[in-house]
Hints:
Structural class: alpha/beta
Helix content: 40-55%
CATH class: Alpha Beta
CATH topology: TIM Barrel
Number of strands: 13
Largest sheet: 7 strands, mixed
Order of helices and strands: HEHHEEHEEHEHHHEEEHEHEHEHEH
Distance between the termini: 29 Å
CATH architecture: Alpha-Beta Barrel
Oligomer: single chain
Strand content: 5-15%
Radius of gyration: 20 Å
Strand order of the largest sheet: 2-1-13-12-11-10-9
Shape: globular
Amino acid sequence: MMPIDDIADWEERIARQDAFWQREIIDRPVVCVSVPRVTPSHCAPTRTAHATARDRWMDAQFVAECALAEAMGRDYLGDALPIAWPNLGPDLFAAFLGCELEFGDDTSWSVPCVKTWADAATVRFSEESVYWKKLLEMTDALLQIGKGKFYTGLTDIHPGGDAIAALRGPEQLNLDLIEAVGEVKALLDHVNKTFARVYDFCYDKLVGAGQAVTTWCGIVSTRKWYVPSNDFSCMISPAMFDDVFLPGIIGECGHLEASIYHLDGPGALPHLDSLLQIEVLDAIQWVPGTGNGRASDWLGVYKKCQSAGKGLQVTLDPDEVDLFMENLRPEGVWIALNGVADREDAEAIIRKLSKWR
């Protein structure tokens, strides 16, 4: 397994995160925090003159150099480890299937390509896709520049309802679920099978490079794991979610050794009961979303997940730590700390969490 040059205890950090999937602790729950270095050891690249936002997003070497500067500009405390991942936006998986992407400064979005159900026959994964080739180029650039410096992660892959919404457009998909649910299910089956192919290729590439597995949510583990999600689900009823999308999520979890579901915003909460019944789902990442309070405002959600035997990934401000220690069990909790002023404060919180048994 690839070590990180300036983190002597990287094996222990990964071991704690492996134990997280089993809802176990080695000596304390996982806690991750990073703080800016006083003197960064690598300067950010000079911003090149990209003609468009798309050109900047698609410049693999520039992306890799920015990732290195970011990774080398922070100190990683507790179980935190430096990571980077090739990011072309949340609709990238749909782009592998034929959609075009449009790029803004901070994100990208798909141009729906399945205008009629006759177009669904053209939805096929292609190794000739410019976006697939760019993903591989970016992954290779990150692996090369990051060796011994950071772990390169899997990209953001959205199969299921999010992929169909990208292919059809979310407004149209809402109508489809009333008028053409059979066609939706048929396309969904094809899309979800393609996910397994894409995931396995990327997973094998990273593991073949001697890496642990990571992605955008920050967990670093030796397990074959990923983050199932369905942000589109906030638009539909629990009955429709269970009928159309839940089987694919169960299949996605079953394809993996470990999984953590990304539950995004109050609109997705009506589906929590169904998700907690998935035996092969290991954990929940509940994200309230901007304007919906902090983690401490949703303590009941976390308690419900723990009662169902699921692990939790939680982002806490320092003043929320005591409340969670008093109300939850430490087993199966993965904590990211926000708003920590400096290294001294971070180490004090880690010592406190070490007593949570």
